Predict the 3D structure of the following.
Amino acid sequence: MKLLRKLAPVFNRALDSFAFFSGVLLLSAMVIVCVGIVTRSIGRPIGWVVEICQFLLVYITFLLAAWVLRQEAHVKIDIVFSRFSSRTQCLINAIISAICAIACSFLVWHGVKVTWDLFQSGYLTVSVLIPAPPLYIFVAVIPAGLLLIVIQLVRRTYDNIRHLKTSPNDEQGVRMGKQPGL
């Protein structure tokens, strides 16, 4: 556990760096699209704008997802969930995070296999770029990003279990919009 506590700040800094890099990629995609629109309007369209932006969006998504999960900034529908006690919420979060970590682990394994097969075969992208880049460069970010998600899900599971063990037993819960005694 001591090793995990020492590695946590390193992992957090890595996620922050990936988030910053994703922001740079998003700004780059925005500039590329704007340049593409301007060049198309003057009659000299750039053929690779859509293709590059597609690849940038894949990178942005998979490099940013674990950071979003760490921030708990993902989309949640908690109209029912918020009515549970904090212990029940922690239990549900721990179970869901563990199941998601297992599912994403399978996706990482399969993604690594696909990326390796693409690397060995030398399969190139269908591209307007000359020379066409190998496809594994664009696919490799998927298992890498999913691995970051698995690590964050395991951390989330551990944190919820630890909170379960240390939190008092408040089984009543608080109803949304109602304060006790009112």
